[in-house]
Amino acid sequence: xxxxxxxxxxxxxxxxGTAEFFPAVALLGPRQCGKTTLARTLVDSxxxxxxxxxxERTEDLALLSDASLFLxxxxxxxxxxxxxxxxxxxxxQLRSEIDERRRVGEKAGxxxxxxxxxxxxxxxSSESLAGxxxxxxxxxxxxxxxxSLQRTExxxxxxxxxxLLAPNAAMSYQWRRAYLTQVIERDVAFFAPRLxxxxxxxxxxxxxxxxxxxxxxxxxxxxxxxxxxxxxxxLSLLCELMHVxxxxxxxxxxxxxxxxxxxxxxxDCGLLHALLDIQTEAQLLRHPIIGQSxxxxxxxxxxxxxxxxWQYSFYRTQNSAEIDLIAxxxxxxxxxxxxRSSKPVPSQGFYSGAVDVFATQRLxxxxxxxxxxxxxxxxxxxxxxxxxxxxxxxQCSNS
Length: 399
What we know:
17 helices; alpha/beta; 14 strands; six-stranded mixed sheet
């Protein structure tokens, strides 16, 4: 199981746990990012020793009406449970079964749990399976997984397989619009049944129109006719469903007035464009969101490639000194500026901010075609070279 998971899960090369060590692995990611396909491939490779359950199917859910009995009959097999968030009461049963399997010598690789929600939304698992489970995130396709031709479509269409690999741009766009409806009608309705779907969709579109911006909850609440507290709950839900990233401001002991509000990004740029009715590359190139869209695309690529062992934030002062993305791990601190330009010129505010956050390396990610060094610690990198650049950073941080 470890080798197969490694092909499509975070490519940081630093998985904190594997199926060779943990009895259970939770593979989390947004709906239709490829989790089920991966799991089905795993089961089909050894059908005699694996069983697959989809808890959105009534007949599969019925098999777990007496979960203890069913799980006992599957001992010696890998049990794959898809959409596990739909049966949170199952986790206590899994704990008992894991402990019993361990007692008879089955140490690891018992369960693969697939979920369309974040670890925080699956809090029951962390409580019931503490020390018995590890979490991996499966994202939509990232640049390092794609061919050169697919990379040219990735920014417009996003990384969801059915969108990226659609026969043409029109069908890709139609899939993404239908997907947005599906998320609201299925995932949102399950986790927040009292939340009006149209209200959440309007909020999602508002976030898209201000991609990477600082959110004014009071203004959003007034526009949507809800309370500011409700806006906070809605934003949290979109983050926990892994469709929105809240990038927190950097906080350090410096004598400058720093922004305290987070920035919000629609994580998949294809969904961002669908929310804004952008269907073609020509429309995207003319749209005022193009700079923020490019920034969000790069932020998501870097965060996913570096992986969960890094801490992410941004830097902004009241005087508008700014760093788009800060990535920190141990003694390594990356200050990253993102510019949709072929000849980027970092601002003085970026350099002064890099000093404030004690950056050990500075990256300027741009839309040009070549890399060059601006100084001993600052390198300009085009999108095409970004994967290799981040790999080199990972190797350095792991050494």
